[in-house]
Amino acid sequence: MVAQRLHNCIIFENQIIKIMATVKYLVRGTSNPSKIYARLSDGRTDNGGIRLIADTNILINPKFWDTKKGMPKQMAENSEKLNQETELKDLDIKILKEYAKAKGTGATINKDWLIDVIAKFKNPLLEQKTEYLKDLIEAYQTEMKTKINPKTGKPISHLTIKSFSTTLMRLKKFEEYKNKRFSISDVDLTFKNEFVKYESEKLLISQNSISKDIRQIKTVCLDANDKGFSISEQLRSRKFYIKEEQTAFVTITESEIELIKKCDLKKVNYLENARDWLIIGCWTGCRVNDLMQLTNDNIQITTKGQKFIRYTQSKTNKQVDIPIHSDVNEILERLGNFPRPISDQRFNEWIKKVCLQSGLVQEVHGTRQNPTTHRKEVGTFQKWELVRSHTCRRSFATNHYNKLPNKLIMAVTGHSTEKMLLNYIGETENDHLDDFLSVWNTPKPKDEKIIQLNEKQG
Questions:
Q1: Is 299 exposed, middle or buried (0-12, 13-18, 19+ CB in 10 A)?
Q2: Do 347 and 277 meet the contact criterion of CB atoms below 8 Å apart?
Q3: In the chain, fewer beta carbons within 10 Å around the N or the C end?
């Protein structure tokens, strides 16, 4: 039975629970979106009462918030008003019901308690107290949909949330292989070693993918531990990780972009379309999922009349502004819009053909997915074989490195630190030593006046 809120009490499962506590909602800050906070009050704090405030993980545009009522405003633009108001009222009942229950049992009531109540309201799976690893990963994934990324202050990227589905799928296969359901207490170094061996030998997964799976499983277990679940102490061991391999990659140089532009593709429509996207990708640094979303709506004009592309990265939720390169402008003027969107799979397939016909056949060291086994392999291949969608983004960063300040490149790529950028393009933090030495060791030209003076004195 659904609980009902009445004055100074709630009715739940045919029982009337009297409660003097109140829940009020408030919004802090003026940025859009802003967080809605819940404040639970009961009596005066100087007389043994409580006053707790916690993040509800519900977002709203502050202009749609009624400060006096502590509820969303009824405005035409606020299409979410009814859903938000209903959710907040339901949360009000949940908090007061759990508060009455906690007071009756003598449980500790503090901010962590309130955060836990809100988390269980947002994700009912947490109420089940299941100890199975698979269920906990599903619950954590559901919870992420309503969480805020502490680094960006924005909702967690759907790509980050989706990545847990891959780990979950591989865990299910491992459980079928072992004919066992793993609980959180089973996750120790033995589990890690067996899971890694299974992924490597049976699923033929790359080391970096395995590293991500282990990292995500550890994250879920530590989060569950914060919620009261018991875990193996081995989870905190330095050995509970898999080191990532240095990624070998190729980039397309500016001279190779010229070859691609001039290549005769025999008017094969799908290859010409892929070529246009490849060129745009190399001059914008977009990830492929963002690249294929670009339209004329993304084109903005500065007060000086300069055109630029503005979009929000799907992975980081960061807004990116990038000037329109002449090669990109030529494509936009020719087509009247951005090229026809295609799938990531087709883009990867067709740009290889474009690069082959453009003459990118030199042998280079790199990594590719074996077309037969679908397993990553490292070796020497013709360059066109190694080109993929992410090549665009790496090419942008690499081609502009040492030509533009790192800060400008990072504004486009979305990297938070220079260390991340350098790692991304394969540079090391001491590469600047070569630049200094090349300058210092270059013989300086002799001053002509000193030479003439020495000749006279001689």
A1: middle
A2: yes
A3: C
